[in-house]
Amino acid sequence: MRVVGDKDREYLTIQILHNDMTVTIPLDSAERVGLRKVIGEETVEEVLTVLQGDGTKMPKNWNRRFKHNRDKMKTGDIFEMAEVVRNLAQRDQEKGLSTGEKQMFSKAKRILASELMYAKNMDEDEAREFLEEVLEEIGEARKARA
User: I want to staple 64 with a disulfide (CB 3.0 to 4.6 A). Which of 26, 44, 49, 59 is the partner?
Assistant: First the structure.
């Protein structure tokens, strides 16, 4: 609780472990700025289902594709993030990624792994390894169907 002007306001203090940062946000603004609870174990299966799904039709132009994926990532929605990871993984497997898309893919995987880390009670390395294994299995299954 802090006094701001003449009002008492509650704040959330969040420690982001993977980059050692602390963020303080007014509680009454949390939803507006896109803050949400970390996913639970029950949501992990839903995320994995999104990763296994068919890719979204993406713009052919890499600039539009990049913007499309960046906008999805900005939502903070875990399922949108999973879609970005899935779509970029498919694109990488089929045609390769531009340098910017490679960086975006890496960042999206890092964010998704950090959610999985808390939901599955893993450390950061275990969560990254888990995600990479899932993506590899999905990629192999797609190749076998093709």
Answer: 59
